[in-house]
Design a protein that fits this description.
It is built from 8 helices and 44 strands. The chain is mainly β and 780 residues long. The strands form 12 sheets. Strands 6, 7, 8, 9, 10, 11, 14, 17 and 18 form a 9-stranded antiparallel sheet that branches. α1 runs antiparallel to α2.
Length: 780
Amino acid sequence: MRNPSFKRVAGFSLLEVLVAVVLLATGLLALAALQGSLARNSAEAKVRSRIVAMMAAELDNVRSSAYTNVATTAKVTASNPDCTAPANDVERAACEAGLGYVEMTRTVTEFGSNAGDTAFVQGAAPAGNTDAEFRNVVIDVKWDDAHGVRHTLNSRTVVSELALDSNSPIVDEDSANHVPPKAVVRQANPVTAGMIPIALGNGDSTAASNPTPELVGKNQNQTLVGTRFNVLTYTPSGSLAIIQQRIENEVIKCTCEYGAGGTNLGEIYRTPQWPAIWTGSRYDVHAPDPLDKSAPGKTWSSGPKAGVTQSPLCQECCRDHHDDFANNTDPRFDPESTASVYGKFNDTAGTLSAATPGSGTYVDSCRVIRVDGMWRVASDMYNRNLALLETETISSVQAKTGLPTTSATNKYTTYVKDYLQQYDGTSASAPTNAQSMFDDTARQLNLPDEVVIGQVSNSDNRYLHARGLYVDHLEKLAREALTDALASRRANGQCLAGGADLADCVLPYLPFTTVNLTEIAKWNASSTATLNVNNDGELATEPTQPKGGRTLGIKIGKADTEAKIRHSNSGVAVSTVVKGGIDTTDDQVLLTDKQTFNVGGTTTSNGDDFYVQINGGPANYVLFYIFPSDEQNCQGSVHLRQCSTNTTLPAPGSIRLESYSGEELVTTAISGWQCQYNNKTVTVSDTSVQVPTFHNYEVSSISNGGSVTLVENPGLTTEETTIQFPSITTSNDNLNPIVIGLTDQVAPIPATMASCTATEINNKGNKTYWIESVSWNKTW
């Protein structure tokens, strides 16, 4: 039997056809809507562009007109205009844009200087001030689209009879006496907490930003190598300010090496420069006579020492910062140095020793500023006065913030202006009475007489504010600018000696600033038994609660918190690599000020003292004693600490030892290192680098029956050990201290190189590569 065959049905069903038609229709409708929208938007864009062109033409007409002819005009209207012969620009624009209604209005408002030349007000300037005025021009255009919807567009410009416009070749010759146009930089008011602006008398003010740390490295491998701050001259304008001048400062410490400069530096960095000096209005690199006269740095061919973590600007510092003491014609980097011959010093474990000129390593400190976009080493900065200003009282509690009171700020600014107005351009040296003027009782700057801390506490922090007044040595150009300015003003009866306006005439021509030194100064207590004063030198950036000078009253009595700072660059440059001064005279002249604290009134404390001696380990450990309701930091020298308690001894208690494990830099020879240079891997020359090396100490011995009860964070820099004593006895001297021994648990652990960058040295075609920077892997 044959199987039946089935023929497959071909074609589309009616339902499928209907669905396809619906989809096609929907797509065509969407496409039509899109095309309509594009056409409509294109037409609107064409209309708007034609209106904008008309407004631009009107503004060009305003700018090309004589200033006296710039005035408000009557409204010009085009309503269904005759497009065969448009009567004016408005009708022509309406015809070209296909509009039935267009109107244009020009409104001009005049502003002139007030009688005191301190602000612009609406209306013409008073007689004699005709230069100080401008006219605000606003062009308004309205039009109706094809659907009768009203649209509005406006544009604005400002014109002045002093404006120099390319379309106005004939310029009033009086304009030759005016400052040429320049860019106007506006920003939010730059004054923040901790800054003290000084008025310059011409409507401008100057202020230094709070110093911030310059850090090199990444993440946890950052190293503090210097201090940054800006000196701003600005015109306050409500909540905004017009920045007239910004001087960027970086103050750094460097480890330099003779012979590391010259051809060892990149070709464009090889030529030593003269100092950047103040010229009366700005900083410029000194131009010698003749111009090709070599700077003193050429003699020494210095550069940054390889393998040392430091600021990239040490290239400029090491290369340039040298003086020729036989040259009495050109400016020096350190013009107020008392030395008579050239010399540098090397720092070995905090001890300075004379470096052999032309050979070996030395340390230096420089102020580097930006001149015409390039970093240049400037002449050294000099501190004329260090002041502790009265800080704010909160809820009747004295010194609860690090911000100076309004009264102290006002008195200090008056003092600064009174001191600076003594400059007259006849001498390069600073007036020598800065301190005696500050101490004048009539000025009331040494307030308060004492800060009262009501009771002993380990949490009632009190804060101080240290302020430095810095004025450069005045070189010839600066002195001439000041004397010329005073002579010109005095010819008109202004700026006379003793006059109320004298400071306003002098200050704009001086290279001065006042800097918040709270986090930079070195702090100590006159009695570590009474006060616990923080001196971490961390350069924290919270001026309301600074770490520097933070004071706790830990025992009833009176004592002083004292601030100290070096006279010049090394005092401002905060560095964890070069911690001390850079020459033997640095610590001989220190500026100081102090504040008295009265802890717990006049009652004598009943607490007793005891001493703890630490054998081995680092110098910067932290030691606390712990009794019930009595826990404080023990103070003292490197390995002997005095614990001044508020507890009657003998008594059972504890000692907590912190920060005793840490790292040091160990100079280590390296060979065959692979580093990155211009996105390629190169082999650097064999050299020596400073490798972070960890000492993991542990408490190995304890006297007086003490025993370790707790070790926290073992093997890290944050490791802490608590030691319990059955009885701690009093000791009024250091003859019978508790003795604690520290030893390394294991051999010192060097960090390993994570990555490094290199710099290329091209010596007559012979290319070599040297270490530029290193990032380290640290297990601690």
